[in-house]
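Human: If only I could read C-alpha cells as easily as an amino acid sequence. Underneath my words sits a plain record pairing an amino acid chain with its C-alpha cells. Take your time, and here it is.
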Amino acid sequence: MRRLIAGSITGLVTFLFLVAWHLTAFMPPVQAYAVAGLVAAAGAMFWPLVVGLLFAGRARARRREIQRAVDRQLAGQAEHEAPPKQD
C-alpha cells in the first residue's frame, strides 16, 4: 500500500512539473525531464519521513490524552479512598 501511495504522489508531482514546464517553457525539454525525475525521486525518498512525523505527532497527542484521563481517574479514586481526617 505504501508503494502505491508513494508512486501516486511522485507521479502526480512529476506530472504537475511537466505540465508547468509545458505551459511556461522555462527550460529545455531534457532539463525539464531530468528535474522532474529528480523531484520524483526526492519525493519517493522523503514521503515516508513526512508521514512518519505526522503519525508520531498524532501518537504523542493520543498518549497525552490517555495520560490525562488516567490522572483524572486516579485523582478521583484518591478522593474516594482517602481516610477521614481526625482532629
